[in-house]
Amino acid sequence: MKSHRKTGWFSLLGLLLILAIVTISPAVAAPILPHTFYGNVTIGSQPAPVNTHITASVTGGGGDLVTTIVGEYGIHDFNTLEVQPSGDDATITGGAPISFFINGVRAEVREGGKSTWSASYPFASGVDTNLDLRVGGTAPTTVPTTVPTTVPTTVPTTVPSTVPTTVPTTVPTTVPTTEIPAFPYYISATAGPNGAITPSGSVSVLSGADQSFTIVPATGYTIDQILVDGIPVAKTPVYTFTDVAADHTIAVSFREGSPEYFTSELGNGWNLFSTPILLGSGYQYLENIFPSSSLGNIDVILGWNGSAWFIPGYHYELAPLHALYVKVDDSATAYLSPSESITVPPVRSLVKGWNLIGPAPDYQEGGFSARPVEDTLVTAYGNQENPGYLIVISPGVNQPGWSYVRDAMSVDLLPYKGYWVFMENPETLAGFSTTPIF
């Protein structure tokens, strides 16, 4: 599994933003960011099975997750164990001890690679920590070196009048356990001519686990039909079976024509990423947008809620007019499957201060084109007495870097990218995309 060593990524992000907006950004109190954890987890000295429940508790908040890999928790940064305030008004004091539990049993903790175990770990805002967890301890480290070679042939007829006054100072801390292996199920994955499905053949999946399949048509072809257990489902480049509890089949066929989904390539380093179109039901979540091969290259994903950073969790829905920071090692590909429902153009409320947006241009001639900034933000202009947006910034992170001042020379906003917009007064931003488009 890809190593999670990300010390300093918040500092890098902070530097990028400071260079862009320090001269105009209003002073605000530092937000309390989640303290994220990942690492190894053992029960009775054995790797914890899939579906082990990990929880954390600290005064003012906590967090929880369910494991998906034997002996590990925290596969990707947006699926790590996030310890954060439990409500809008809640707060966690820096250094407050965090208690961890494995299936409800209090766990011991230690930083990855260290030898000393402890009962808790201190909270630190915005830090990502490699932390091992265990319950059940370890077996005694010493055993008798000799074994009696004879057995007494007589039984004492008297009872000792004294009782030993000392007792062993240590006792084994482990209890024999019997692990119930997760029952494997099988998914038969097949593809017709002019395309492929990965993985293919008979795929073994542990009970309760998820399994994704990536579907790639050949050049000049598109997906014709996806049958899951013989029943047609929505066309998507990535189909995921969740919480597998039975055998399944998935069969894909292809036909000539343009793809019925869009792809966006994310480069090495930081990217700003958005969707120009409302995504189909069940395909709007990050874990469906990025196939497993791309998820393995993603270090961290960050969102901005108008006042503080947050780390999107499992089943985070990416909606038009919103954008995320995505840090990638090497490259990643996003697959965007438009909704098949009839929808009106998207709208979003922009708050006073900085907002992180993604453009939502209309679909034309097989794709989404760049659109002038003043056209994209026309509904957020306001008026002379109560102006809306004042400044727009395009950070130079795998996209052109520039700054735009209201009513200056026009620049274009690109689809699939993200931009900072500073609002003098709250306004409503409207996009131009609608569905269906095919």
List the helices and strands and how they pair.
Elements lengths: L8 H13 L13 E9 L2 E2 L5 E6 L2 E6 L5 E2 L7 E5 L11 E6 L2 E2 L1 E4 L9 E2 L5 E8 L48 E8 L3 E4 L2 E6 L4 E7 L3 E8 L2 E3 L4 E4 L6 E9 L5 E5 L2 E6 L11 H4 L2 H4 L2 E7 L4 E2 L12 E6 L3 E5 L10 E4 L2 E5 L5 E2 L2 E2 L2 E2 H4 L12 E6 L7 E4 L6 E2 L5 E5 L3 E4 L8
Parallel strand pairs: 1-11, 12-19
Antiparallel strand pairs: 1-2, 1-5, 1-6, 3-4, 3-7, 4-6, 7-8, 7-10, 9-11, 12-14, 13-15, 15-18, 16-17, 16-19, 20-25, 21-24, 22-23, 22-24, 26-35, 27-34, 28-29, 30-33, 31-32, 31-34
Structure description:
This protein has helices at 9-21, 286-289, 292-295, 373-376, and strands spanning 35-43, 46-47, 53-58, 61-66, 72-73, 81-85, 97-102, 105-106, 108-111, 121-122, 128-135, 184-191, 195-198, 201-206, 211-217, 221-228, 231-233, 238-241, 248-256, 262-266, 269-274, 298-304, 309-310, 323-328, 332-336, 347-350, 353-357, 363-364, 367-368, 371-372, 389-394, 402-405, 412-413, 419-423, 427-430. With 438 residues, it is mainly beta. The protein has three domains: 31-135; 184-256, Immunoglobulin-like (Sandwich); 265-438, no CATH class. Strands 1, 2, 3, 4, 5, 6, 7, 8, 9, 10 and 11 form an eleven-stranded mixed β-sheet that branches. A five-stranded mixed β-sheet has the order 14-12-19-16-17, with no helix packed on it. Strands 21-24-22-23 form a four-stranded antiparallel β-sheet, with no helix packed on it. The protein is flat, with a radius of gyration of 28 Å. The two termini are 39 Å apart.
